[in-house]
Amino acid sequence: MLIKKKPSWDKFNHNDVTPEEVYQQRRHLLKQIGFLGAGTLLSFPAQAGLWDLFSDDKSSEHFKQAGLNFKKQPAYDQWIYGDETPEAKVISHNNFYEFGTSKTDPIDNAQSFQVSPWQLRIEGEVERPMVLDYDALFRLFPLEERIYNFRCVEAWSMVIPWIGFSLADILKKVGVTSKATHVVFETLYDPEQMPGQKNRFVGGGVAYPYVEGLTLAEAMTELTFLSVGLYGKTLPPQNGAPVRLVVPWKYGFKSIKSVVTIRVTDKQPPTSWNRLAPNEYGFYANVNPKVDHPRWSQASERRIGQGGLFSAKRINTLPFNGYGDMVGDLYKGLNLKVNF
Amino acid sequence: MRLSTKKIFSIKIFAHLTGMLPLLYLLLKVLEGQAGGDPVQYIIHFTGMGALNSVVLTLLISPLAKQFKLGGLLNVRRLVGLYAFSYASLHVLAFFSLDLLFAWSLFFSEVAKRPYILLGLLAYVLLMALALTSFSHIKRKMRGHWQKLHNWIYVIAVLVPIHFYWSVKSEVIEPSLYLLTLFILLCIRVKKFNIFSSKKTASRQ
C-alpha cells in the first residue's frame, strides 16, 4: 500500500494559496504597480536588475549605438590625469536638461531620440555654407580617438575617450570670412522629442534652444573637438548624439550636445547659462581653480573613476583643466578673474 | 473626535513606514546602480528633500489637528520631527563624506564662504537642538522654555526652503513651491508669532 505522507512544507491546500486568476495576471499586476508607482522613472534599459520588474520592454527602447572606424591619437594622452572613467558611468551621469534636470533623466528619457535623419548646418560668415547629413558626419573626415579630461562646472570630473575630428577642420573647409570673430552653436529644438523643452518644470527654466559660443581663435585651436562617438561607438543620445562639441579646457556646459547649427558670426553671442546666471557662468568658462563658483569651490574636483561610491577621490583642479600649454596663449593679457 | 490609542498607534506605524520606505528605495536604487553613474548628487538631493518634506509635514500636523478636531494627531509630531532630523543628518553626512570626501578644511571653508551652506547648517544645528530636547523627561524639566525652544521650528521652516532655492542651478519652480507652501503654513499660525515678543509663557499647543 502506498502511504502518502505530505512533507512539512506542503501543508497548504490549493485554496490556501494565491488564487489562480491572480497568479495568471501577475505580469499585468506588476505592470500596473510599476505604472502607478514610478512609471518611467524607474526604467533603465542599459542594465538588467530589480527595476526591470517595473518596465515591460527594455530591449526595444534601448538606443542602438554603432561601432566606428577610427585611429587612436595618443598625442593627447600626455595631458590627461587619472584613469579612464568606466563607460557605464559616462553614459549614466549626464547634464542634458532637454531630457530633465537630474543626472539620470537623460539616460532614462533619451533612448528613443531620433538621430537619423540629422542636419548640421554650418553657416554665417563663411565662404561656402554646408549642410551635413547624418552619414556625412562620419565620412567627412577620418575619425580619431582622443582621451580628454572632462571637468563639469559642478566640480566633478571624468576622463573620456571621444571619437571625432577637430572643429578647425570643418571651419577650414567652409572658409570663414574676414568679418568672423566668434562661432555660435545650437542644440536641436524639438519639444516633441525633448520633454525639457516642452515643459519648463522638466527643463529647469533654461531658454531653449541651448546656445553656446567660442571666440574664433578658440574654435580654431586643434584641441576643440567635434565628437560623434565615445568608447569606440557612436554617441548615445544622453551624451549628445549624433554630434557634440568637446572643449576640454572649459567647463562642461560649453561642450554643447546634439548640435544642429554652427554659425560663424562677427560678435560675441549670448549663451544659455551665461544668460541665465551671468554672475555664476561666464562666457569663457575656462576651468580655473582660482575663480570659485559663487556657491562652491572650484579649487578641487571629485573625480568619477573606477570603483564604488567610497573609492572616489578629490583631486586638485588644474588651470585650463591641464591644457594650459596648449591654450594658455589664447588668453594672454586677458584678466581671467574678470573674464571667467 | 478623540483618537483611540490604537488609532494613534496605527498612525505612528504609518508615519514610520512613510519615513523609512523612501530610505529603502534610495538604498535599492544606489545598490542596483539605478541612481546613475555617480549617485552622490542623487543621494544628497534625495536626503535633503526627505528632510524638507518632513519639515513641511510636522508643520502640517497641528493645522490638520485643529481643522478636523483630532488632537491625538499631535502625538505623531515628534516622530515626524525626528525623521526630519534623521534625513537632515544623512544629508549633511552625505555631503561631507561622499562629496567632500572627508576634507575637513574644505567643509569649513565651504560653510564660511557659501551662504546657502551656512543657512543649511544653521537649520541643521537648530533641528539637532530640537531633536536632543525631544525626550519627554527633558521636555518636563524644561517647562516653558521647551516651547520657546521648539518655536524655532518656524525659523527652520524659513531657512530650509531658502537653502534649497539657493542651492539649485536654475530649476527654481520646485523650490519656489516649497517656499510658498511653508509661507502659507507659517501664515496660518500668524497669531502664534507674538510668542517671540511677549513675556507670557507659551500656550500649550
From TrEMBL, chain A:
Record's cofactor remark: Binds 1 Mo-molybdopterin (Mo-MPT) cofactor per subunit.
Keywords from the UniProt entry: Metal-binding, Molybdenum, Oxidoreductase, Signal
Molecular functions per Gene Ontology: oxidoreductase activity
Its EC number(s): 1.8.5.-
Residues binding Mo-molybdopterin: N94, Y97, E98, C152, T187, N239, R244, S255, I256, K257
Reaction equations catalysed: L-methionyl-[protein] + a quinone + H2O = L-methionyl-(R)-S-oxide-[protein] + a quinol; L-methionyl-[protein] + a quinone + H2O = L-methionyl-(S)-S-oxide-[protein] + a quinol
Cofactor: Mo-molybdopterin
Boundaries of every Oxidoreductase molybdopterin-binding domain copy: 114-273
Domain of life: Bacteria
InterPro entries on file: MsrP, OxRdtase_Mopterin-bd_dom, OxRdtase_Mopterin-bd_sf
Function text: Part of the MsrPQ system that repairs oxidized periplasmic proteins containing methionine sulfoxide residues (Met-O), using respiratory chain electrons. Thus protects these proteins from oxidative-stress damage caused by reactive species of oxygen and chlorine generated by the host defense mechanisms. MsrPQ is essential for the maintenance of envelope integrity under bleach stress, rescuing a wide series of structurally unrelated periplasmic proteins from methionine oxidation.
Recorded family membership: Belongs to the MsrP family.
Assembly, per entry: Heterodimer of a catalytic subunit (MsrP) and a heme-binding subunit (MsrQ).
Stated name of the protein: Protein-methionine-sulfoxide reductase catalytic subunit MsrP
Organism: Shewanella surugensis
The gene coding this protein: msrP
From TrEMBL, chain B:
Membrane spanning stretches: 9-28, 40-61, 82-104, 116-137, 149-166, 172-190
Compartments it resides in: Cell membrane; Membrane
HAMAP family per UniProt: MsrQ
Family: Belongs to the MsrQ family.
Co-factor: note: Binds 1 heme b (iron(II)-protoporphyrin IX) group per subunit.
Keyword line: Cell membrane, Electron transport, Flavoprotein, FMN, Heme, Iron, Membrane, Metal-binding, Transmembrane, Transmembrane helix, Transport
NCBIfam families in alphabetical order: PRK05419.1-2 (NF003831)
Keyword Electron transport attached: yes
Pfam families given in the database record: Ferric_reduct
Swiss-Prot/TrEMBL cofactor(s): heme b; FMN
Name of the protein in question: Protein-methionine-sulfoxide reductase heme-binding subunit MsrQ
Lineage of source species: Bacteria, Pseudomonadati, Pseudomonadota, Gammaproteobacteria, Alteromonadales
Residue intervals of the Ferric oxidoreductase domain: 48-159
InterPro entries per UniProt: Fe3_Rdtase_TM_dom, MsrQ-like
Domain of life: Bacteria
Record flagged with keyword rRNA-binding: no
Main location: membrane
Mode of membrane association: Multi-pass membrane protein
Subunit structure, interactors included: Heterodimer of a catalytic subunit (MsrP) and a heme-binding subunit (MsrQ).
Function: Part of the MsrPQ system that repairs oxidized periplasmic proteins containing methionine sulfoxide residues (Met-O), using respiratory chain electrons. Thus protects these proteins from oxidative-stress damage caused by reactive species of oxygen and chlorine generated by the host defense mechanisms. MsrPQ is essential for the maintenance of envelope integrity under bleach stress, rescuing a wide series of structurally unrelated periplasmic proteins from methionine oxidation.
